[in-house]
Amino acid sequence: SWDTQARNYISPSPTTVEIVQTSVAGMGYLAYGETPSPNMFTEATAYDSMNQAAQAIAEQRFDKAFTVVDEQLKHQVPDLLPLFANGLHYYRALALEALGQDDEALKEYVTIYEAAPESAWGRLARLHLEPLP
Question: Which terminus of the chain, N or C, has less C-beta within 10 A?
Fold first, then answer.
């Protein structure tokens, strides 16, 4: 507050903030006065699985990409953030498409698009649903 006599600002007493820091599956987590949510661990592994799948697809190792994502989806919690859930399904669809399983890939793309049509994953999925000129 402002001290009119001394003509200076007196800051309030400092408060103590507990910082919790941990690292899970290569992702850092930093919160002020909080503990990590139980889903954070699943979200961190989902993020890592998406990165592994993207790398495998870039290396044209489509069977590995499918396996990584499929294994992650087996352990998915029901309330996993859509960002991660749709991302995993998108990489699964890419791998299926590359492996020649077009019908299964199409089902994945439709599911992603119907779940979140305006999200980045939904828009990417829609590109696989539109015929090319």
Answer: C
Whole-model pTM?
0.68
Buried-exposed string 71-106: b where 16+ CB fall within 10 A, e elsewhere: ebeeebeeebeebbbbbbbbbbbbbbbbeebeeebb
d(CA 79, CA 98): 29
pLDDT at 58: 95
- Residues contacting residue 2 through CB under 8 Å, at least 6 positions apart: 8, 9, 10
Cβ proximity of 33 and 17 under 8 Å:
yes
Assign residue 77 a region (left: φ > 0; alpha: ψ between -120 and 50; beta: otherwise).
beta
Helix (H) or strand (E) holding 27: strand 27-32
Enter the tokens of residue 105: 């890939």
Length of the chain: 133
